[in-house]
From TrEMBL:
Entry's Gene Ontology cellular component terms: cytoplasm; phosphatidylinositol 3-kinase complex; plasma membrane
Record's protein name: phosphatidylinositol 3-kinase
Taxonomic lineage from the root: Eukaryota, Metazoa, Ecdysozoa, Arthropoda, Chelicerata
Coiled-coil stretches noted in the UniProt entry, renumbered to this chain: none
Broad EC category: transferase
EC numbers, comma separated: 2.7.1.137
Originating species: Ornithodoros moubata
Amino acid sequence: MGRRDGNDEVIGWTGLNLFLDLGHFNGGEFLLGLWPPTVSSIYGPASGNENNVGSVLLSLPHVSQLQAPCTSLNVERRAFTELDTETQNEFVDLMTEDPSQPLGQSLRTKLWEHRHHLCDHAALLPHFLSLPTAYLAAHVQETYSLLLMWNPLTPEEALALFAPSYPDTTVRKYAVQCLQSMGSDDLSLYLPHLVESLKYECWDDSHLALFLLQRARTCVRLAHQLYWLLKGMVEEPLMRCRVRLMIKALAYMAGERVACSLRNQMSLDSTLVDIALKVKNGDAQREEVMRQGLMRVDQSLRDCSMTLPFDPALSVNEIDVESCCVFPSKTLPMKIVFRPVDTDAEKFETIYKVGDDLRQDMFILNLIKLMDKLWLESGLDLRMLTFKCTATGKNRGILEAVSNVSTLRHIQTEALAIATTTTFSWPPRDTCCTSTLAKSLERWKLLVAFEETAHP
């Protein structure tokens, strides 16, 4: 919009996919709602705003069916050893580089020039697919043919192709195909990354979305994890419609039993939010307000047991209200102690928080699990243990409470490890027997090793 002083002012923006799919142009008239300038237009589905804050009428011509790129073009595959030694070494060094980092003009030129010699090295495929030249009209058929000829990526290597720098649908479909062999345990580790990648898909029914729904149908744990990851994105304006569609599809495909379990968890979360807000808004008698609310939850659990958001295998049917409390920290989190249905199992202590973005905690914990997996595969066992954490909405969630532990700061302060003594002076020698001391020192050394690795 133009202003009297001659400067332009952005009053809003909107988006629309120009193609419905390969070969079908999206022609016609479209009434698109405007997004305010405060909503970023860099990432997310191209869609209009469903709220009535202004709109534009866009008219596009009807175009006859376009010729879709052919994926079966005959391309000659050449041997890597035909390249000179200097060029080979340059590409070998490139294999260890992060494909998300931009390449220099000289390297981009060599990568395209010698593309037929590189098919034996899967690690070079993401670098090749990042070249803008590969998607020019004159080259895209050859790019698709090379994609089929190239040595396949491992599931872990294929994760790079879900970045926003790879918008091509055929490339992202190939990446999904590479994930088919990934087991449920490994997929659980990478699920937060894949759910985040849904932002960069052109269509709601993308190959990635269908893959996640299909795998969730075969594994209850994945279904629960996917559900709560999607719920954490509902508040994002551009993703709201897509996430709601995914949640409805997940509830349908996962089956009535899983859908019922998720509904019960949602009901529990809503009740705990109300209790937490009353506790935060009350100036006095916070413990009493919490206990009265939890007594009602306890009664509903006695009538119908349910599973907790972060563990579909853990079924609870009571709350030990007397053991619950409010922590005197800034966000006033509540300690809630559940009794499992299995009477032989120990009580399960949790912390419910309102006011913190627990998605950050989930990301860090998931990163630690991934690092531990890589260390174990390399023969290094640091005996990493993590607690469970699930964000159930914007700035709220539930965590597993960990008891009988000491923070690193407490240990260092107690032993004066940083200031005056050696790091391995904890625990105090007169507080435990020789065997316990040896085990504690071994765990302490591994903890220090992890700290040095995480914070070099």
